[in-house]
């Protein structure tokens, strides 16, 4: 019984992993983004998240988590959001050991600013 439970947990934990690793994040032209708060989301299994992206003077000034991915760490979100704000770009280095979580955050940011 324990083995069946463990197999089920592993299957659930890895569901969507392959899709998330292969996600392509497109760049956003911030020159076209007006001041405001933009909400974006990405949802594939446990990597579902919703973010609020703040833009002022065509720059990302802050990113807030409205709904976070399961099993996230503050370190990963701080790294991703800090890099995006510092570089003003979605083309950042992927956080080691958190590829899918990093891409999930980036896709939510892309969704927020692309759907503007």
- Proportion of helical residues: 40-55%
N-end to C-end Cα span: 50 Å
Q: Pairing-aware structural class of the strands and helices?
A: alpha+beta
Envelope shape: elongated
Q: What is the multimeric organization of the chains shown?
A: single chain
Mean pLDDT: 87
Task: Please describe what this structure looks like.
The protein has 116 residues and is of the alpha+beta class. It has four helices and three strands. The protein has helices spanning 2-14, 17-21, 74-87, 99-114; strands spanning 36-42, 49-56, 59-67. The protein has a three-stranded antiparallel sheet with strand order 1-2-3. Strand 1 (36-42) and strand 2 (49-56) form a beta hairpin. The longest helix is centred in the C-terminal third of the chain and has 16 residues, at 99-114. The termini are far apart.
List the helices and strands and how they pair.
Blueprint: H1 2-14, H2 17-21, E1 36-42, E2 49-56, E3 59-67, H3 74-87, H4 99-114
Antiparallel strand pairs: 1-2, 2-3
Question: What distinguishing features does this structure have?
Answer:
single chain, 41% helix
Summarize the structure.
The chain is α+β, with helices and mostly antiparallel strands and 116 residues long.
């Amino acid at each position: 019984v324990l083995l069946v439970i463990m197999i089920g947990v592993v299957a659930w934990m890895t569901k969507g992993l392959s899709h998330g690793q292969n996600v392509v994040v497109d760049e956003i032209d911030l020159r076209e983004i007006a001041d405001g708060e933009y909400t974006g989301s990405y949802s594939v299994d446990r990597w579902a998240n919703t973010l609020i992206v703040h833009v002022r003077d065509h720059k990302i000034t802050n990113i807030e988590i409205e709904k976070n991915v399961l099993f996230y760490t503050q370190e990963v979100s701080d790294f991703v959001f800090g890099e995006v704000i510092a570089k003003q770009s979605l083309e950042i280095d992927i956080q080691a050991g958190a590829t899918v979580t990093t891409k999930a955050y980036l896709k939510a940011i892309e969704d927020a600013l692309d759907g503007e």
